[in-house]
Amino acid sequence: MAQKRSNPKPGNLVQTIERVALILDRVGTHPQGVAIKDLSGALGLPKGTVHRILSSLSYFGYIRQDRETKNYLLGLKLMELGALLGSQLDLRRVAEPVLRELAEKTGEAAHMVILDHGEVVYIDKIDAKQPTGGLVMSSRVGARNPAHSCAVGKVLLSHLPEEALENLIREKGLPARTANTITDPRRLREHLKAVRAQGYAVDDEENERGIRCLAAPILDGRGTAVAAISVSGPAVRVAKKTLQDVFRKEVVGAAAEISRRLGFNGRTGIQ
Fold first, then answer.
1. In which domain, by residue range, is 146 found?
2. Residues 156/111, Cβ–Cβ less than 8 Å
3. pLDDT tens digits, 236-253
4. Domain count within the chain
5. Each residue's pLDDT tens digit, 149-205
6. β-pairing, 225-234 with 63-65?
7. Calpha distance 107→257 (Å, rounded)
8. pTM, whole model, 2 decimals?
9. Do 206 and 140 share a structural domain?
10. 225 and 151 share a domain?
11. For residues 140 and 111, what is the distance between their CA atoms, to the nearest angstrom?
12. Is 4 a member of any domain?
């Protein structure tokens, strides 16, 4: 029996996506696999339609076919996505108290992001308490930014393999967000080497005029940079000296603590 949905069915539901979801649900209820004719009968869809969808899902790894029985089973790609989802949810749970303390200590907004298709995606944000009339960051969970123009993005780019970085530069380009954005590939490569060596990155009004930021990487048990955290604030409140004298120690320390809680046992810190 296909999984029931608790949320209301949207009026603009795409038919193909609906059929894909129904097929995946149905296949998932058959540990030994299911034949096309059985899927077709159970879902009330033509065998040709079911075959085309299964072929496409197989190509991308979401479905696999048993060589002997010819039955269809869920693909390993779904396991991979499930593991990624689990790690992201666990990451937020582990990082939240450290991120909250970071915002309280610095008096500015603390963020956590991941890298997705050459962009940073904000997965958590803790706003510091500001006095009445104080400036508040407009960033929000779910928002995206180009990776090359912000501190969190530069930290994560600095941990990419060289080939992956070159592909990203070629595909995304380095568009200017402000007059301070690094738009020259050679200069960015050199800058990222320095970021990787020192363990943190600074955004001095590079992504948004009037905003300064400092970020450090979150490393998992294998030493992989899975996310980055930062503290950001208006330039009128956050001087360059504040970035180096206050934010650097607090952000790098918080990132090291989150990494430790994720199982990283290497050495991190300010160099």
1. 85-261
2. no
3. 998 999 888 889 999 999
4. 2
5. 999 999 999 999 999 999 999 989 999 999 999 999 999 999 999 999 999 999 999
6. unpaired
7. 19
8. 0.66
9. yes
10. yes
11. 9
12. no
